Give the backbone structure.
Amino acid sequence: MVHIKRIELTNFKSFGGTTAIPVLPGFTVVSGPNGSGKSNILDALLFCLGLSTSKGMRAERLPDLVNSAQNKRGTIEASVTATFALEGVGDEWFAEDEDEDENEDEREDAADELSQAAVDAIEIAETLEHNGQSPTNSTSSDELSEAEVAALEIPETQPHNRKSSTNRKSKIPNLKSADEWSVTRKLRVTRQGTYTSNYYINGEPCTLTQLHEQLNRLRIYPEGYNVVLQGDVTSIISMNSKERREIIDELAGVAQFDRKISLARQKLDEVKDVEERSRIVEKELISQRDRLASDRTKAEKYQKLRAEFQEKSQWEIVLKFQQLQKQEWKLREQIEAGDRNSASLTEQVQTINLQIQAATAELDALNARVKALGESELLALQSTIATQEAEKRQLQNRKQDLENTAGQLAGSIAQTEQEIRQYRQSLEQIEIEISYVNSQQGSLQEQRDEAQQILDKNRGVANAIASTAEAWVQQQTELHRQIETFQQSLEPQRAEQAAVNERIDRLQSQIQEQERSLQVLEQDIASKTVQEYDLLAAQKIATGQVKSLDSLAAEAEQELKLQQETQTRLLEEQRERQRKLDKLEVQFQALQEATGTFTAKIVVQSGIGGICGLVAQLGRVEPRYQLALEIAAGARMGNMVVEDDSVAAAAIELLKQKRAGRMTFLPMNKIRGGRFSVNQNLRSAAGFVDCAVNLIDCDARYDEIFAHVFGSTVVFSNLSDARRYLGQYRIVTLDGEILETSGAMTGGSSSNRSTLHFGTVDVNEAQVEARTIAVLQERLEEIERILVRCKIAIDNASVAVKTRSQELMEAKQNLRENQLRLEQLAAETKSLQGQQEQVRSQIAKNTQELTNSRERLQLLERELPVQETQLQQYRQTLAQLEESNSHSEWQQMQSGLRTLESQLQERELALRNVQQRLVDLENQFGRLSEKIKEGSEKLQEWQMQQLTCAEAIDRIIEQQSAIQQQIAEAKAAVGEIEEKLGVQKGERDGAESNLREQHLAKQQLQWQLQKLNESQHERREQLAAVRDLLASQRAEMPDPVPEIPEDVQKVNLTELQQELKSIGKRIQALEPVNMLALEEYNRTQERLQELSQKLTTLEGERTELLLRIENFTTLRRRAFKEAFDAVNENFQTIFAELSEGDGYLQLDDQEDPFSSGLNLVAHPKGKPVQRLASMSGGEKSLTALSFIFALQRYRPSTFYAFDEVDMFLDGANVERLARMIKRQSEQAQFIVVSLRRPMIQSAERTIGVTQARGAYTQVIGLKL
C-alpha cells in the first residue's frame, strides 16, 4: 500500500535544523501540548505537496514559514521532503488513473475537435469576407490554438486547476521506477525579503503542475480533502450553501466542462462576429445589385428600342415587297397564336401544380396515418421474419451436412457389416474344417496308439530274446531310449517352431494393417488440426470483431443517449422559456398599455431629449390610496412631463408631422402648482386623510407637477364624512367618489377601463422587459436550431445504433457458429486421438509379442539342429550295433521292430501333420475373430456417431419447428397489421394513383408546351430568314414599289420613316447607356448567391458548435448528478454510523443544481430533523466530518491527515470517530493530530511533540 514513509523538515516554522519523522502505515496520532508545533507537521505536508497557499498554512506570506530563529542570517532556506513508500504496488494500482488520463485525453481531444470546428467556421467566414472584399480583421487558427493552450495552463497560484495536456507529456521521474518516491520543496529567502520556491521529484526539478500530475496518480488530489485542518471543518459549517455545492462541482470535474463550454462560447462569439461582418458584405452586394438593376433596366430598354428600330427599318423595305410581306405577316400571326397557346398551357401547368401540392399534402397525411397504425411495427416484424428465415436456412444447411455425414457413416457401416458377414462365413467354414481335423486327429491318434502297442509287444519279445546277450541288448536298449527321448523332445519343439512362424506371420500382418490404420488416423488428425487452427484463427478474428463492434455499439448508444438527454433538456428549457416569454409578453403588453395612448408611444419612441415620462409613471402611492388618487388625477395622468417648453414644442411639431393626434405637455420650467394649506379644523375633521398631493411619492423635482395635477384636492375615507364639506373643497374618497367645489358629486361602480395607474410602471421597466423578451426570443430561436441539428444527430445515432447492433448480432451469430464447429471438430479430433492411442497400444502389444516370438524362434532354430544331429548320431550307432549282431532271430526281430517303428513314425508324422493343420486352422480362426472384433468396434463407433448425427438432426428439426412457429406467428401478426392497414393503404394507394395521374397530366402539358415552343422557335427562324431575304433583295427589287398589305397601306412610307426617326431620337436620348450592367448584374448576383450558400454553411457550423455546447452541458449535469448521488449515499451511511441517526444531502433546486445550494440535513438520534445552521457545535462538527468522510470515500486516497478535528466533540463521539478512522486505516494511511484520549488509545502508534522553553519543536517520543 502506498503511504508516507518519512517526513523531513529543515528550518520549517517551529522546527529548527533538520528533523526526520518516520511514519508507518495505518493509524498514527501526533500529540503534544498546545503551541508545541504538532500541527506544523501537517502544514509541512501542505507546503511540500503544494496543496495549499501560505494563508492555508497559517502564514501571511511564504517567508513567514521559515523558522523565526533563522531570520538574523543572510539568505535562509527552509525545505520539507515527503518520502512515499511504493512497496508492493503493481501496475494495477495505476490502471484507474491511467484510465482517467485516457478519459482526460479524450476530453481534450473533444475540446480540440470543438476548437477545430470553430476554426474551420472562421476560415470559411474569412474566405467569404475576402470574396466580398470586406476589409475586416479576424483571428487566425494559430492564435486560436495559442488561446486554447493558454486556457489549459495551470498557474502555480491556482492549485485547484486541472493539469494541462502540455504538462502531461513532460519528462519527470516515473512512479513505477523505484520502491520509494520523494517530493521536496525548498523555500529560499534573501535578506531583502524576496524569495524563490522550487519543487523536486526524486531530486529532479519540476513544476507544480507536474507534481500534481504525479500526485493524482497516487490518488492525492488538491481538492480531495487529503489534509483536513482545524479550520476546514469550521469552514464547511460556516460556508454558504452554494460554496458547499461547489465542493461537489470540483469532485465531479464540472470545472473541466465549464472551461470547455467557455472556450466553445469564445469560438462561437468569434464565428458570430465574422458572420455579422459577412452579413455586412452581403448587404453591400445587395445594394450594388440593386444599383445595377436600374442600369440593367435602362440597357434592356435601349436594346429593345434598337431592336424595334431595326424591325421598323425592315418594315420599310418590306413595304416594297408585297409577296414577302404577306409571308411575314402570316408567320407573325402564327407566332402570336402560339404565344397565346403557350400562355394558356402555362396557366394550366400552374393549376395542375396546385392540385399536385394538395394531393401531396393529402398523401403525406395518409402516410402519417398509416405509420401511426403500425407500419413501423410491420417493418420490424418483416425484419424479424427475414432474420428467422436466415436462421432457418443456416439450420437447413447444417442439417444437410449432418445428413451427408450420416449417409457416409451408413455406407461405412454397411461395408463393415458385409466384411463381418464374410469373416463369419469363413469362420464357420474353419470351424467345420477344425471339427473334421479333430475327428481325423482322433483316428490317427488311435492308429498311432495301436502301432505303439504292437511295437511295445514286439519289443517285449525282443527283450526276452535279448536276455541271452544282455550287454548287447542293454546297449541297444539304451540307444533306443535315448532316441525316443530325443524324438519326444524334438516333436513338440518342431510343432512350436511352426506355430511360432505362423504367429510371427500373423503379427506382422496385423502390425502392417494397424500401421496403415494409424497413418490414416494421423492424416485425419492432421487435417482436423489444420481445420481447428483455421477455425481458431477465424474465432480469434470473430472475437475481436465482436469486441470491436460491441465497443462501437456502446459508443453509438452513448452518443444516442447523450443526444436524447440533450434533446430532452432543451425541450424542457424550451417549454420553460416559452412559458416565461408568454408571461413576459403579457406583462410587456400591459406595460405598453400602461405607457399611454398611441400618441404617447410616438413621443417616447421619437428619441427627443428631455422627455421625462407620463404623470402616471413618475409617482407611486400606497395601494389603499391608489384608487382615490387616480380618480382625482383623472385624464392628467396621461399628460407628458418634459424638461422645458422647447421640448414640448418639438413634440407637438412631431405629432403634427406624424398626424398622431393631440397631447398635453407639462414643461417643468413653466408649470407652477397652486399652494394649498389645510386649516386645523379640516385636519381634525372626521374621516379626513390628507391632501392628495401629500400622498404621492415622487422625486422632489416633480413636486410642482403633482401640485398642478391635484391642486387643492383633499382625501376623505368615506362619502358620509366628505359630504359635510361639500362645496368647500374638491374632495375624493378612498372608494373613488368625487365631490367638486361646485357641489357636483360623481360616483358609482368602477369599470377599471383606464390602463394608467400610479405605482405600477417604472420608467425603465418596459425597456428592461423588452430586452428580456428579445433575449428569450433569441434563445428560443437558438434552441430551435439546436433541436433541429440534435434531431439530425439523434437520427444518425439511431441509424448507427441499429446498424452496429445488426452487425454485432451477425458477428455474434458467426462467432456461435464457429464455436459450434470448433466444438464438433474438437470432439471428432478427440475421438480420432482415442482411436490413435488404441491402435498404438495394439501395435505396441503386437510388436512386443512379435519380438518375443522371434526370440523364441531364434532359440528353437539354435537348439533343434544340435538335437537332430545328436539323434542322427544315436541312430547311426544303433544301426552299426544291429549290423554287428549275427543272431538271426534277433535280426529278424529287429527287422520287424524297424518295420513297426517305421509304421509308427509314419502314423506319428500323419498325426503331426493333422495337428499342424489344426494349429493353422486355429490361427486362422483367431485372426478372423480379431478382425470381427475390430469390425464390431468400428461398427459400434460409427453407430454411435450415426446416433449423434441423428440426435443433432432431431435438435435441428426441433429448432426449425420452433423457428417455423415463430415465423408463422410473426406472419400472422403481419397479416393482422396488413389487414388493419388495408383500408388506409387503399386510400393511400388511391391518393398515390391520383398523384401519379396528375404528374402524368402535368408532363403531357409540359410536353405540349415544349413542342409549341419548338414550333414558335422554328417560326421565328423562318421570319428572320424572310427578313434576311428582303434585305438581300432590296437592290434587286423592281421599281415601282410592290403592293403592300392592307393594314400597312394605311400608313405611307413617309409616316413610317417619321416613326423610325422618332425611335432614333428616343435611342439617342437614352445614351450614354452602360451596357456592361447586364454582365455586372449577373456577376454580382452569382457572387451574392455564393456568399449566401457559404453563409448557410457557416450558420450550420455555428449550430454544430451550439449543439456541442449543449452536449457538454448535458455531460456536466450528468457528472454532477453521479457525484452528488454517490456522496449523498456515502454521507447517509457515515452519518448513521457516527451519530446513530440519519442524514442526507439536499439541493435547494433539484432542477437547476448549479444555481442552487447544498444543505446538510441531519436527524441526530432522539432529535428532530435539523439543518446545519440549527445544530449545536458538536452536531455541526460531526455532520461536517461525515460530509468530509463522504467526499473522501467518493475519491479515495493513499493517506489522510486530520488536525484536531475532534476538538468540538464529546468523549462518546470522539470514540465513534476514532473507531471509524481505525477502520478506514485498513485502506489508507491516517495521520491525526489530537489531544483526546479516545483518539490516542485507538491509534496504532503515537508521535509525541514538544517545545521546551521556546526552543525548536522536537519529536520526543515514538511508540512503535
